[in-house]
Design a protein that fits this description.
Blueprint: H1 2-19, H2 23-28, E1 31-35, H3 46-62, E2 65-68, E3 74-88, E4 94-107, E5 112-125, H4 128-137, H5 144-177, H6 181-189, H7 198-231, H8 234-245, H9 254-268, H10 272-298, H11 304-319
Parallel strand pairs: 1-2, 1-3
Antiparallel strand pairs: 3-4, 4-5
Helix pairs in contact: 1-7, 1-10, 1-11, 3-4, 5-6, 5-7, 6-7, 6-11, 7-8, 7-9, 8-9, 8-10
Length: 327
């Protein structure tokens, strides 16, 4: 299912790159940034962490950055230091917190702070947790310091990618040569649409994606052929069928897969109806997937990115590292 959606959307992406985006579309594109809050010695309550996450997301969006839950090379985070904390006498008593917040944009690969700024906020609440939440709520969206911070960082990240574009492409091509297609597509998927030269990245990614589906198809064909040759009966046909069904029409070995499929149908003989029932089931599934693929194409999903994004999301815990921020 995923591969059909990826293929259809990859075609949509290619057509889109040929046609080119309008000036308005380009202007609407944002530099993606992940939001990540590190573990800290002075633990922020979970409810307060969500409030801080929402605040960072909102301010970043106002300044031309797009918060994403997917892996991004650059992530926005914040570290906090409690400057003052005490109970304000009264009925009921109130809890006062004064917090120094340092916002960072971090390069996850280089393990270095790309940019940072610090503000101080204070607030009271009926509980310590509520005081934290109120502190983060009081962070002004229109703060000149934060606006300057995110706007400047946005431009710095854009300049970084544009200056590193050919290096990123070379790295992806090198990874593809050793069959690390998912990692290669991951590196290319990180390149923002908002940056100059995106069409060049799409061109390279489309070529690597073709190698990815060819490699996957060859392995599925080899598996199907091995299973069939070992049995040459309806049971072997049933076991081989799912592997053949995974081979996409765009794969170079697709004709070989069709030839094997026809051989299986002819050889099964008396059990052909059983095999056809399996084929009908697979065809129904393929039709359903084709409809979803069409929908994906209409929505212009950059499906080759799905391979890379999936790879990147599996690397999050190993790549987003916070201990050095706390030094």
């Amino acid at each position: 299912m995923k591969k059909l959606i990826i293929a259809a959307a990859a075609m949509a992406l290619t057509l889109g790159s040929v046609c080119g985006a309008s000036a308005q579309q380009k202007a609407d594109l944002k530099i993606p940034v992940s939001i990540y809050l590190p573990d800290q010695e002075q633990s922020i309550p979970n409810q307060a962490q969500q409030q801080l996450t929402n605040k960072i997301t909102a301010i970043a969006a106002q300044c031309g950055m797009g918060a994403t839950e997917d892996f991004a090379q650059f992530y926005a985070t914040a570290s906090s230091v409690v400057l003052d904390k005490h109970v304000v006498a009264g009925a009921p008593p109130k809890y006062m917190q004064e917090i120094e917040l340092t916002f960072h944009i971090v390069d996850a690969f280089a393990k270095k702070i790309f940019n940072s700024t610090t503000i101080t906020v204070q607030a009271v609440g009926n509980t310590e947790t509520q005081a934290y939440i109120n502190c983060f709520r009081r962070i002004p969206n229109g703060s000149p310091e934060l606006k300057e911070f995110f706007t400047t960082t946005n431009q710095k990240i854009k300049s970084y990618y544009e200056s590193q574009r050919e290096n990123i492409i070379s790295m992806a091509q090198s990874l593809a040569k050793v069959y690390k297609y998912d990692e290669a597509l991951f590196r290319l998927a990180l390149y923002p649409e908002a940056c100059a030269g995106y069409d060049r990245v799409v061109e390279v990614a489309t070529g690597i994606y073709q190698k990815y589906i060819d490699d996957l198809a060859n392995r599925n064909l080899a598996k199907a052929r091995s299973i069939w040759n070992a049995g040459l009966n309806a049971a072997a046909a049933a076991e081989a069928a799912p592997y053949l069904a995974e081979i996409m029409p765009e794969a170079k070995c697709y004709k070989e897969a069709l030839t094997l499929s026809e051989e299986i149908k002819q050889r099964v003989g008396d059990d052909i109806e059983y095999y056809r029932s399996l084929e009908a089931r697979d065809n129904a599934q393929m039709m359903d997937l084709a409809n979803k693929a069409h929908q994906a194409e209409m929505e212009r999903i950059k499906a080759w990115k799905e391979v890379g994004i999936a790879y990147g999301n599996n690397q999050k815990e190993n790549t987003y590292y916070d201990a050095w921020l706390m030094r």
